[in-house]
Write a structure and sequence with these properties.
Layout (H helix, E strand, L loop, with lengths): L12 E6 L5 H13 L4 E5 L15 E4 L5 H14 L3 E5 L2 H5 L4 H11 L9 H17 L3 E16 L5 E10 L11 E5 L4 E7 L8 E3 L3 H11 L11 H10 L6 H10 L14 H18 L1
Helix pairs in contact: 1-6, 2-5, 2-7, 4-5
Amino acid sequence: MFRKAVKHESKLRLALAGPSGAGKTYTALLLAQSLVGSGNVAVIDTERGSASKYADLFPFDVNEIESFSPDVFIAAIREAEAVGYGVLVIDSISHEWNGQGGILEIVDSAAKRMKTTNTFSAWGEGTPRHNSFIDAIQRCKMHVICTMRSKEEHVQEKDSNGRTVIRRVGMAPIQREGILYEFDVACELDYEHTLIVTKSRCPALADAVIRKPDASMAETLKAWLSGAPAPAKAPTSKELYEAGKVASLWNSAQGYFAFAASQGVIISAETHNQMSDAQRFQLQAAMKEAQTSAV
């Protein structure tokens, strides 16, 4: 059924790509803090603690992961969501693609198990796991800012005096081809810390070139993200279970079922996905009350 389109308030999906030293982490943290204020930012750090070097400038909580399987990223995203952060920075998602335990390793291992040099079949294992990672970002109830490393290249140019100079430039981001389709706004950062918007659903930022971006960019994004209140969406049974587990309301499915029963919702391993939206909202409210009472 067709209905009148309404612009609802929404959560940002922003990509920042650039070579080493371009300022991706700093810019991501600056925009994150400007979007929601101090103390409500979470960072998934794949860069061996590099984000924490800015902890004296920006307050945030960090999860420094060392294995880059899509499942590890997904678990960290869900944990941040369950805690209730306003912005999640993933620095960087390039590791999900070509890092230890990432998609390229998953495909390579699958091809070796299949004893073939043709990876076409092996991608049948890698692609669904990558898609699950992208889906976790898209469904996340926080603003999400993702950084990506860029392939680097050296180019020869003439300076203002006509002399030949060598300059390093960032090329394509290190991630799966087409990754930028998943973001509202995609930007490149260069060695002079100039941000170039290469894709934008926000008209005010289309084709923008910003020298050392600051909080004003976040204000532009906040204005664009505003709209009618988003319609309430019932959490899935899995989301309820994961949120309760993170909050230590239960440690197993049986604890989850027992909590539901205490609220008059009788479910089991076979029927938990059959709850109505009203029952899911009921359990969500009861969980929040239980957490408040425990504090």
